[in-house]
Amino acid sequence: MLFTNETKLKSIAVYLTLFIAVVIAILTLSPVSSSAVPGSDKLHHGIAFAALAFPLPIIRPSMALPVILCVVGYGGLIEVIQPIFGRTADFADLLADAAGAATGVISGLLFRRFLLPDFVR
């Protein structure tokens, strides 16, 4: 067998993380229009950054803290460059990003512990 289940899972987690990072960049750097999506801006940030932080701890639990730091750093970078794109930087958005990152990592670790089949780990 060319790829093991672990290799496939790692590939999926990495590509999913990169895809989510690109989607977040597009959505947070695009001009603001009236949102048809219910919920607050901070809730949207929290969900997006939780999704970004979720996949990698599933495949590499030891990377939990670096994932949180990188995801928060990514959120900070976005906040710093948003004014270039006609958006406003907001420290509260960064706090929501950090809360989302922690939630995503914890959820990923719990998923690995309780829901990931043993044969994949």
TrEMBL record:
Signal peptide, first to last residue: none
Family matches, as Pfam families: VanZ (PF04892)
Source taxon at top rank: Bacteria
Membrane-spanning ranges: 12-31, 66-85, 91-111
UniProt keyword ATP-binding present: no
Domain VanZ-like: 43-111
Keyword annotations of the record: Membrane, Transmembrane, Transmembrane helix
Protein name (database record): VanZ-like domain-containing protein
Lineage: Bacteria, Pseudomonadati, Pseudomonadota, Alphaproteobacteria, Rhodobacterales
